[in-house]
Each structure stands twice: as C-alpha cells, then as structure tokens.
Write a structure and sequence with these properties.
The chain is an alpha/beta fold and 765 residues long. The protein folds into 4 domains: 99 residues, Alpha-Beta Plaits (2-Layer Sandwich), CATH 3.30.70.100; 186 residues, DHBP synthase (Alpha-Beta Complex), CATH 3.90.870; 123 residues, 2-Layer Sandwich (Nucleotidyltransferase, domain 5); 233 residues, ATPase, nucleotide binding domain (Nucleotidyltransferase, domain 5, 2-Layer Sandwich), CATH 3.30.420.40. It is 30% helix and 21% strand. The protein is built from 20 helices and 32 strands. Strands 8-7-15-9-10-14-11-13-12-16-17 form an 11-stranded mixed β-sheet, with helices on both faces. Strands 29-30-26-25-24-31-32 form a 7-stranded mixed β-sheet. Strands 1, 2, 3, 4, 5 and 6 form a 6-stranded mixed β-sheet that branches. The longest helix has 27 residues. It is globular, with a radius of gyration of 28 Å.
C-alpha cells in the first residue's frame, strides 16, 4: 500500500454487535500487537478504527485477526474500509464515544463467565462472593441499557459512581474490565437486601438466610436480570402446591434451576447438543426427557425444564441448595415483575432484591432440541436483541415496524437491512401485557432510533395490534397469519425462492381470507403472495373460543363430522350432563355459535380427549396436545387412514377415516401410547403426501414447517425425517419459535418485498 517510511493509513467502520462486548480494548491490544498507531471509538453506527503504520503493510493480517480473534460476545456483520490521510500519530488510544444518529447492535444479557466465576469464589479477590461481578465478556446488557451508544451513563448503572479501584480497571486497556459499563464491586456497586414481603422490613443474613427460608418451604421472589423469579424448593410438595395456588397454575409445568450439570443428569436424560444448549452463555431453559420425576413439577408430561444459574446471585443462592423452582413472577397472563413496586410482595413470603434497576423486562428463554438443532418455545433473555440480516435483494431504505399477532406476541423493527425482534411479550388481550407491548415499542424505537414509515399487522380486524396499527396514521399493510408464519423461516434462512415453496402452517388459530378460523394450512408461497393449496376439512367450533378451552367439545365436533348426529356415545363423555351434550348437538346441527375451523390444534384436542388424556377443561394453551405427545411411542411407524379430496379447490384433507379407526382401536383396548404414535404418524404422512403432490405439479422441493403445532417434538421429528427421505428440502425456524412469536418477522418479510417491487415516486404518499 505504501513504501517504508511513508505512513500507510486506513479507517475502518465495524458494524454488528460490537459495543458493550469488549471490542474496543480488544482492538487496542490487537493494534499494539501489530505495532499500529491510531485510535478506536464507539460511534452511532458501530466502532470506528483508525490505523497507521510506517512499515510496508496491507493490513490484511490485522483484518484477519480482527475477525478470527474477536471477543466471544462480538458479532461482526460488516466492515467498510477507507484509505485516509495519515496523521502521524504517536501511539494507539481509545477515544471517547461519539454521539449521533444511532444504529448499532447490543449484546443480549449473558451468564457470568468462567473468569468472573473463579474470582467470585476466590477469597483473596476483592469481589469475593460479590453477586454483581461482571466483565466485558459477561453480565447484563439489553435489560439495563436506556439508549445507545452503549456507555455507562446510558445504562441503569449510571447512578453507581465507580470507586478508585474500579475506575483504574475501567481505564486500563489491558484489563478485562476495560470499559466494562456494568463494572462494580462491593464498595461502589449494587447491593442485595432481603425483605419481609408483607412489611418490607429488611432482614439480616442476605443470601444464606434466603437459602435457609427456601429449605423451610418458603416462597422467595428473587430479582434476576430481566425480572423476578418466584423460588421455592421442588422437594417440598406443600410449597410447590402453594406456589401453584399463588400463580393460579394447577398443572402447567414449572421451571427448575439446578446448582450444576450433575444435578440435571440425576433427573433427566441429556444428549450432547442438549448439554451444549444448557451450558451456553445464553442459559435457556431446556426441556429434557424425565429420568426421575419430581412430584408436582410437570404432571402428565414426560419432560422437565432445567436451566443453570446465569447470574452471580443465582450461583450464591444455590451454594447451599441443589435445585430450586424458578418460575416467572407474574400473575396469570401478565408480564413478569421487574420492581418491588409492581406488587411482587403480594405473591411471596420474602423478597430477595437489589438496587440495580431493570430497564427492560425479559423472561427466560425456553427451547428443546430436535434432530440436534434448537427448537425455541420462547425467545427472550440471552437472545434478544440479536439482529437478523435480510437477503440483500430485499434490503430497502424505509423503516418498518411489525406488530405481530395477538397471542404470544413479539414486535419486529426493520432498519438498514436488519430486523430486530423483541422478546416474548405475552397475550395482548390482557391489559398489563398490552402496556408491556407499548413499553417495548418505545424502548426499541428509542434504542435503535427507528422512525417507522410503514406499520404491519395481522389480518384479523379485532386484534389489539390491528387497532394499534390503524391509530398510527402510517401506511398499513395487513398480512394473513399463516402466510406470515411461512415467510419468517425464509427470511431467517436468507432464502428468496425462485419458485414458490410449500408452507405447512399448523397451529391453533389464525384469521383466514374467508373469515374462518384457519390452522391446518398448506400454502404455495413466495414473499409476495400465496395460494391455499390444501387445508384440513372444516369442522365446527361449538361454542366458539370455548371449544379451545374444553377439548370435549372438539371431540364431539369430530364425532358428528364423521358419523352425523347418530354418533357413537362413548364412555369418555360420562362426566358431561346429557342436557349439555344435547344442547351442543343442536348448536352444531343448526350452526349456532359454531364457526368453522381447519385448526390442527383443535384436532389434537379432540384426539387427546377421545383417548382419555385430556381434562374436560384445559388450564393452559396446548395442554391437551402436550399430554398426547408425552405418551407417544416414538418407534411405532403405523398410521391411520385419511382422505384428500382432489376435486375441491383448495384440496381438503378429511380425518373421518382416522376418527373411525381410532374408535376401533379404543374398542380393542389399544393403549393411548400407540394411538398417539399412529396419530402423529398420520399427520406426517399427510404432509409428505401433499409435499410430493406440490413437487410434482408445481416443481417446488422446499417445504417450510411452521406454526405452534410444530413445537411438538414427536411430530416435527417424524415429519422432517419422512420429507428428507423423499429428497425434499426442509426449512424450519432455528433462531425463532415456530409459534406466533415469529409472526412479526414474517410480516416484515412480506412488507419488504411489497415495497421493493412497488418502488416509485410517491408510493408511500
């Protein structure tokens, strides 16, 4: 680039997750290693690096090391290089951050790293047993930041003035805590306190006293990174029962936090991939197959949800405990609490809290492993707000906000070729969750300086998100629910298909183009549009929404669909009054309060009830399907008959033959485990049949598996394996859940393409 003696100089702009992850001190050390002069600083769009050298160099070795040796939490998306005039600098320095228009990414909250962990348990270290130890490689990020660039004064740590020792570490470029914004120690940092819940009186003893209360059967609210957990001993059945009463959670599974990996192995079977997920820096809850049951934790299911400690405080609490229940501190259908003022004292005996404020609440993430790859049930702490790059052919200059659906909502924002999807927000038909939704829109818009020019929502006219979109006054796109489901994995996997893909969207409910309740959908789709190739044959939803809560109603609906009103009267309906059954028969026969549905979720409900696994009324969404999945024999390959009406357009899939065969199996006392396996296999066969049809007729060999039903590990595994045996390419979400949390991402995908192909003067005016 230059001759020796004549300084060669370049300026780099590094874009990605490069703030708050130790990137500047890393660059400082790397520059010294290579003998470069210059500087590095945070800017609104990432990190700026200026390099000078009097040696003959092309800077290639530095660039290679920058990419290969970057800090563990850093993620480089793009590096732009400009040849700039040399300034004949004397050394290399870290300059003060430059404010300005901001679009830079920030790391999610990450569990305590190995180095900090060792220091915390070293008696000679000044942070010995300090519950807020952290460095540039670990600790709080998203939940404490108020705005960017990521500097201490723009986080909730701003109120804690550094002591001389912390200031020295913070200012030393060779120290692991150089510019670690949450840096703290016992002298100057946050402190814990143990409070009596009813009186607010502070108690002595801190963490040890809190642990002793847990052993005695008390319920403790423990403040973590994104909110409070409610904690008790899983071995004290009375404490667990009381916690369930407080949470209004009769049978819904409770999460467990184990002291270490050895404890997890005592109660659950683990694969190598499950261990990898469990011990990752993100520390999700991982659903694992039961080895030894713990009464009252996950009744009627074959999995337990485990996580390992992820904050120093959790580790210290578990010093004297092997295992705790650690469930979100939320009332039923409300967001988790992040501050004592939100009423956490009303649902526990003691509060173990601290004085570092939480800026943005974030629940624990939940996943399971299928075919050695993650399957997210909930994406939040540890993963948000990692960005999603869009295919270059879809990148546009407009800024977009997508509001998702109504249940299991997330929002997504688009800016400069990237999408950031929020943490799980819950069901927006609840007032407090709706406030959380608004709070998150404000936070992400401020954090990434997004001023949306387009808003996208679901097709449903009565969703809160639709109404919110209409009130913004922005150009408003509406995207059909299952179409958005299909597009989300395509965007995630950076696929812009030349031909339409077959999207298999199986879930409980989505508003259809015809106004009916869709949920068993096979769509030929690209980013612009879709064709409804096939769907489950419509059956009635007797009682409307009530049918999703009382599976016996769907069982009756499928029996009447199959046999008419002269259906077999099964013993399984013995606890339902004859008058009630008669009333429901009349509702179905006369189409009174009985809308039509193609829902796969409701089919699961019906079968689960018919085989005697579902209660009359479920407590939580998918309870009946989860019970059915839990008993399925994985190695049984037989399946039931079904029919596809090829004369209909769209094609219609009827399960009448299957319902008849299930009743025959029940007569023969075939165990539920075998019926469940055959049912799951039937759905896999339906998908394979339609995929082969689509490939033959439309030459599409990509099949997208999405929708909340594909959280079912048995179904997903069987369907994937069957499709791959037929040489079809299977795409499914890996970094996002297949349920409604991915809807906002799919909405962004459609809006991007629509805007891209309709570019022109005044298009948005």
């Amino acid at each position: 680039m230059s001759n020796s003696g004549s300084p060669s100089s370049i300026t780099l702009i590094v874009f990605g997750v490069v703030q708050g992850v130790g990137f500047r001190p890393f660059v400082y050390r790397l520059a010294h290693e290579f003998g470069y002069k210059g500087w590095v600083k945070n800017i609104g769009f990432g990190v700026e690096i200026h390099l000078e050298s009097c040696q003959k160099t092309d800077f290639e070795a530095f660039l290679q090391a920058l990419k290969e040796k970057k800090p563990p939490l850093a993620r480089i998306e793009k590096i732009t290089i400009e040849h700039t005039p040399a300034r004949h600098l004397k050394g290399f320095s870290i300059k003060k951050s430059r404010a300005g228009k901001s679009f830079v990414f920030i790391s999610p909250d990450i569990s305590v790293c190995e180095e900090c962990f060792k220091e915390m348990y070293s008696p000679s270290d000044r942070r010995f047993l300090y519950p807020f130890i952290n460095c540039t490689n670990c600790g709080p990020r998203y939940t404490i930041v108020k705005s960017l660039p990521y500097d201490r004064e723009q986080t909730t740590m701003a109120k804690f003035k550094m002591c001389p020792n912390c200031r020295q570490e913070y200012s030393d470029p060779l120290n692991r805590r150089y510019h670690a914004q949450p840096i703290a120690c016992p002298v100057c940092g946050p402190q814990v306190k143990l409070l009596e819940a009813t009186t607010g009186r502070e108690l002595e003893g801190g963490v040890k006293t809190a642990a002793s209360f847990i052993k005695k059967g008390k319920i403790i609210a423990v403040k973590g990174l994104g909110g409070f957990h409610l904690v008790c001993s899983p071995f004290n059945f009375r404490a667990v029962a009381r916690l369930r009463k407080i949470k209004k959670r009769k049978t819904k599974p409770l999460a467990l936090m184990a002291k270490n990996f050895s404890i997890v192995k005592k109660y659950a079977y683990l694969s190598l991939e499950e261990k990898k997920q469990l011990t990752s820096g993100q520390r999700p809850i991982v659903l694992l197959r039961k080895k030894e049951d713990i009464k009252g934790i996950a009744p009627y299911l074959n999995e337990l949800g485990f996580m390992l400690p992820y904050t120093p405080l959790h580790y210290l609490l578990l010093n004297d405990l092997e295992l705790i229940v650690a469930t979100s501190s939320n009332q039923k259908d409300a967001p988790l609490m992040k501050d004592e003022s939100e009423g956490v004292g009303q649902i526990c005996d003691y509060i173990f809290t601290h004085d570092r404020p939480i800026q943005m609440r974030a629940d624990d993430s939940v996943l399971k492993v299928v075919n050695k790859q993650p399957l997210f049930l909930r994406r939040a702490r540890g993963y948000v707000p990692y960005p999603q790059k869009v295919p270059s052919s879809l990148a546009i200059s407009n800024q977009i906000i997508a509001l998702g659906a109504e249940l299991k909502d997330t929002i997504s924002i688009y800016k400069n070729g990237y999408v950031v999807t929020s943490q799980f927000l819950g069901d927006l038909d609840e007032y407090l969750n709706y406030k959380y939704f608004q709070e998150t829109i404000d936070h992400l818009s401020r954090l990434f300086e997004v001023k949306p020019q387009i808003v996208v929502s679901d097709l449903h006219p009565d969703f809160q998100t639709t109404r919110f979109a209409q009130k913004t006054g922005l150009p408003h796109f509406q995207v059909q629910h299952h179409f958005a489901h299909v597009l989300a994995p395509l965007l995630e996997h950076n696929i812009v298909p030349e031909k339409k893909v077959l999207g298999v969207a199986l879930d409980g409910y989505g508003y259809g183009d015809d106004g009916q309740a869709w949920g068993g959908e096979f769509l030929l789709a690209d980013y612009l549009s879709y064709q409804r190739l096939a769907h489950f044959k419509y059956v009635t939803l007797p009682g409307g929404d009530l049918a999703s809560k009382q599976p016996w109603r769907m069982a009756l609906s499928y029996l009447i669909d199959t046999f008419g009103l002269d259906y077999p009267h099964l013993q399984i309906f013995r606890d339902i009054k004859k008058e009630k059954l008669k009333s429901l028969e009349l509702m179905i026969a006369n189409n009174i309060n009985s809308p039509l549905t193609s829902s796969c979720g409701r089919l699961f409900d019906a079968v689960s009830f018919l085989v005697g696994l579902s209660p009359l009324e479920v407590e939580f969404e998918a309870e009946a399907p989860m019970r059915l999945e839990a008993v399925a024999e994985e190695n049984l390959n037989r399946y039931y008959e079904f029919s596809i009406d090829s004369s209909a357009s769209p094609l219609q899939i009827s399960f009448q033959p299957m319902i008849k065969e299930i009743l025959e199996d029940l007569k023969l006392n075939v165990p539920p485990s075998q019926i469940s396996a055959k049912f799951h296999n039937t759905l896999a066969q339906v998908t394979a049949s339609l995929a082969e049809f689509a490939k033959k007729k439309y030459e599409t060999d990509i099949v997208v598996l999405t929708g909340g039903v594909f959280l079912n590990k048995v179904l997903l595994k069987k369907t994937t394996n069957l499709l791959e045996k037929k040489n079809l390419i299977v795409i499914r979400p890996l970094n996002y859940p297949p349920n409604d949390e991915s809807i906002s991402l799919g909405q962004i995908a459609h809006a991007l393409y629509k805007l891209k192909i309709n570019r022109g003067p005044g298009f948005l005016n």
